[in-house]
């Protein structure tokens, strides 16, 4: 075991985890799978993250990476294989991924919860509390509008591919493809009338099959206890850095809280280690996980001194 072994804490039904699994397939990587609960509490995960509960989380030794955009950046920086970002296209990939998270995932989540009659009540209750952009009482009345918005977003993908390009940015598959594929994958598995939503989009259908064929890399199972033991036995190599342009202006070592700005805004407290235009990094200690370093993307996260 080493800090170069990829450990993904996830559950199979998560569309955000599917983004990362596809990225692992694009790069053809080996990785360990730790299955986490779909609903709170998640004591093994929060021992690593300090409270962050979104799925997935990637662990490399004692380094813990939260949010799919931060995970993708680390996969690209650390591991060989086909690039997630074609040369000069990283910012564009991330912009497209952010568009997908808002334009496709938000209505897709509403449709999944409002039309999937197989979802158990504990999952529904957890998700309605988690997704503060959805109201359980009014969701049935909103379904026609959500169908329309989701379908319009899918049409944009089909439009991008309509010139015959195999992938969204051209000849090379990228993080943009993984990010936009995940809501389509979610639609197939969770939304009633998925076939109707996805019909009459031949370019999207062909692209979907290409992404499906990439697979998820080489997966093997790992227990949560084993992952925590790896964390305790490892040491992060991250060094402190506070960029001159970083806002807010904070000193290294100050106690801060970091939380997502969209939903699931559970704050994570720790000692500030790095603050740049791309990431926020906290050092924290946990009885079960040991000394860990938790990485967040700068974009989309709130940083507050405490």
UniProtKB/TrEMBL annotation:
Species in which this protein is naturally found: Pseudohalioglobus sediminis
Matching InterPro entries: Glutathione-S-Trfase_C-like (IPR010987), Glutathione-S-Trfase_C_sf (IPR036282), Glutathione_S-Trfase_N (IPR004045), Thioredoxin-like_sf (IPR036249)
First and last residue of the signal peptide: none
Pfam families in the record: GST_C_2, GST_N_3
Recorded superkingdom: Bacteria
Example GO molecular function: transferase activity
Domain spans labelled GST N-terminal: 4-83
Key word Calcium present: no
Domain annotation GST C-terminal: ranges: 86-238
Name recorded for this polypeptide: Glutathione S-transferase family protein
């Amino acid at each position: 075991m080493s800090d170069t072994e990829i450990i993904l804490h996830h559950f199979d039904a998560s569309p955000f985890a599917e983004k990362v699994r596809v990225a692992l397939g694009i790069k053809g990587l080996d990785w360990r799978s730790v299955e986490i609960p779909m609903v709170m509490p998640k004591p093994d995960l929060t021992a690593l993250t300090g409270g962050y509960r979104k799925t997935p989380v990637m662990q490399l030794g004692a380094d813990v990476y939260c949010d799919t955009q931060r995970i993708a950046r680390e996969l690209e920086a650390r591991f060989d294989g086909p690039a997630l970002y074609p040369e000069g296209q990283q910012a564009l990939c991330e912009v497209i991924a952010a568009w997908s998270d808002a334009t496709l995932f938000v209505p897709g989540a509403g449709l999944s919860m409002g039309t999937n009659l197989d979802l158990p009540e504990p999952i529904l209750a957890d998700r309605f509390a988690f997704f503060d952009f959805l109201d359980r009482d009014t969701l049935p009345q909103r379904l026609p509008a959500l169908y329309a918005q989701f379908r319009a977003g899918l049409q944009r993908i089909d439009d991008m591919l309509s010139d015959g390009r195999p992938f969204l940015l051209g000849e090379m598959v990228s993080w943009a493809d993984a990010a936009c594929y995940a809501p389509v994958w979610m639609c197939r598995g969770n939304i009633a009338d998925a076939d109707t939503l996805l019909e009459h989009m031949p370019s999207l259908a062909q692209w979907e099959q290409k992404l499906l064929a990439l697979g998820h890399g080489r997966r093997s199972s790992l227990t949560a206890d084993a992952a925590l033991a790896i964390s305790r036995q490892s040491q992060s190599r991250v060094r402190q850095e506070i960029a001159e342009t970083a806002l807010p202006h904070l000193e290294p070592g100050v106690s801060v809280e970091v939380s997502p700005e969209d939903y699931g805004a559970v704050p994570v407290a720790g000692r500030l280690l790095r603050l740049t235009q791309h990431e926020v990094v906290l050092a924290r200690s946990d009885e079960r996980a040991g000394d860990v370093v938790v990485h967040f993307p700068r974009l989309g996260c709130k940083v507050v001194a405490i």
